[in-house]
Amino acid sequence: MDEGSVNTTSKQSVPQEFSAVPFVGQDDALFERHLLSDAVVERTSSYERQRFEALAHSVRDLLAKRWIKTQQAYDQANPKRIYYMSMEFLIGRSLTNNVTNLLLHPFIERAALDANLDWFGLIEQEPDAGLGNGGLGRLAACFLDSMATMQLPAMGYGLRYEYGMFQQSIEQGWQRERPDNWLRRQDPWEVSRRSEAVEIRLGCTFEMHQGSLQIVAGRPSRLIGIPYDRPVIGFGGKTVNTLRLWSAVAPDYFDFQEFSSGDFVGALVGSIAAQTLTRVLYPDDSTEMGQGLRFAQEYFLVACSLADLVRRFRRDNADWRLLPDKVAIQLNDTHPALAVPELMRILVDEARLGWDEAWDLTVQTLAYTNHTLLPEALEKWPVHYFQQMLPRQLEIIYEINGRFLADIRTRYPGDEGLVERVSLIEEGQEDKVRMANLAIVGSHSTNGVAAIHSGLLRTTTVRDLAEIFPQRFNNKTNGVTPRRWLLMANPGLSRAISNAIGDTWTHDFSAISMLKARAEDPDFQRSFLEAKRDAKAQFGNWLRSASGQVVDPDSIFDCQIKRIHEYKRQMLNALRVIILYNRLRAAPDLNIAPRTFFFAGKAAPGYRIAKLIIKFLNNLAGTIDGDPSIRGRIKVVFLPEYCVSLAERLIPAADVSNQISTAGYEASGTSNMKFMMNGAITLGTRDGATIEMAERAGEDNFFLFGLTAQQVSESRGWYNPRWHYDNDIEIRQALDVIANDDLSQNERGAFVPLLDILLTSDRYMHLADLRAYLQADAALCSLYSNSSEWARRAILNVASSGNFSSDRSIAQYASEIWRAKPCPLD
Q1: Does the pLDDT of residue 542 top 90, yes or no?
Q2: How many CA atoms lie within 13 A of 321 on its CB side?
Q3: Is 690 in contact with 672 (CB distance < 8 Å)?
Q4: pLDDT digits (tens, 9 = 90+) for 95-105
Q5: 671, 562 in Cβ contact below 8 A?
Q6: Any residues with CB less than 8 A from the CB of 101 and at least 6 apart, and which?
Q7: CA dist list (Å): 543 to 121, 172, 308, 536, 633
Q8: Given strand 681-684, what is the order of strands in its sheet?
Q9: What does the alpha-carbon distance between residue 588 and residue 604 come to, in Å, rounded to a whole number?
Q10: pTM
Q11: Catalytic (active-site) positions
């Protein structure tokens, strides 16, 4: 089976309602009808994008009835519904995922082949949906998949960004950002629901001034939220839930009076200003205007979603007291925390409930997931934003805070330090609203996303609030969907697994544990290694055709792919590579396996050091490539435009997964789980969910190193990175490569800021962990030389990954936080 193909060997068969429909190749087939009716072309004169859209619309036709039946079942049963509110949903491409979950892949691929359609070429016509920029959004997408698969009555709420984060290219080693206009062509999966639009009121208005959006305070205005629905298909196609994305427009799309008076531009300004609100994902918040627009986006998401879900609730329930019994709202990080004052506003101002009753309903209905331990990542919004845009919500926040602090003073008399720390308002030169505090105080559940993260959250980040509300804090370790990240992304390994243990794992991933019994089986080891070698060859072929870069599929594929950030320590990895490079230059006959080091990830446009790290990695790659004495021994590749589709190609091919964040800084991680499912061995620190993964698989099957979170914390007061420079010759030589401009001969001093960070503050303990990293790396390479033992340990990793399915995560959320049950159609 070729790259991108899916092994759907499950005994679940293609639903009769799907297979009975002529799909392609006949005059009345869905594909031909859509080409004719949508694009007004025949197949012989169509181009590839038209054929992709016809194919996608044909698949949507097949799922449409099931989508409607799902909603009808929910309306009839009136179950408790889950509303997952997130600023990001990194869903990737939809065609292959939808076909896989509908169990249609063999049917459609065969039909496409019979009709001489280029299946893989059609797949490439779909851009990754620009609805997220990292793990937070990909987690939300996996969770929606699991909720649908488990037949939970759920809906995702997000924003319909016209432009994604940005498209990343590399020019002379530097990251360059280009607009990601992923919606420049029709998206065949979305359905506009203009009849279900909602009106949002703001205490300000927006105007375009010299090409930029400006906030004008004191002039109340209205925005219209237009919902666009996308299907979320559970595996097997039984349930089709909905991801609803909101797009902002002005109440009056066109000012006819201004147009009639000759002001042609002015007639459109209001509409342009309104649409700008949802035009770009996460606007750059390094400017005052960017921060204000991001704040407005967060409120727009919350206000539209609450208006919509309240309307659904009231359609079937007359008694407001039933709200927590019928509605569960999960806040994915602090971005939707404005749901606390907004829901209070609805209950107090519109429903006319008393404060105490409204507050009780709000707390019982809302739940909050925390995704970070970094204090700077916990949102704090200036009070003047609320004064400008949301004066009523600010009044409510002050009232919540006043009542909360009065209770604290009663429970802890005289402890004004505690009062100051837990207050929803951070007082200072400019007062700010602490959004994490607001979310914790205003919800019945606060969960972390890995055991270590949840523990540090309670004992460090929000310790006071955890002591005040101990019953509200819990852990829900993240997970990823095995349908997308193993079944679909890695057809070779999926086929080998199903041949060995059957296909139960495709719909019950706990069954993957049956592989443990096959870990020492030479035949299965051989099948496993062949699947890995094929995945590496396929990735190499794709990389060569896409970029011209050539990699050796017989080298160790050593990967670190994630957002570029100092705490994720791409520089630690780079220093490891420099030391290996120095060793090979000093001893060309050194016996080591050939290695290819892959890096990928984006740096936030305003994050100067992260962008410099990308430049450093590319210069390192160029220097090694330019050294003929090293060629074929080690190679560094920076893969631009990291996205879901790229991850789906690279992760199945990876031998080594680098998870090397400073201990105590990574909340959970999800790429670590995807690598584990695909048989990569982890080289990492005891951080995030990696700790739990090693516990499941056995630390003997991981290569863990470095300081623990407690050791990092305890060494803060005395740690001196220069000691390592002075006392470890290899570390000194590696840093001297930077100091001597060996990687920047034509850009003298370019990397001095990186050197200064490493030798002065080194907040993220790069040098403290470097020697241990090298030792773990050496042990890993020694193991790789024994292919049978390597395969055994890698297989045990796959077999131990069952607990890191998003199905397990969602089952825990449903039973322990949401108290929601499945609502099956059949």
Answers
A1: yes
A2: 3
A3: yes
A4: 999 999 999 88
A5: yes
A6: 145, 148, 149, 233, 234, 235, 236, 237, 483
A7: 16, 19, 44, 10, 19
A8: 634-639, 595-600, 556-561, 656-659, 681-684, 703-704
A9: 39
A10: 0.94
A11: 371, 562-563, 568, 670, 674
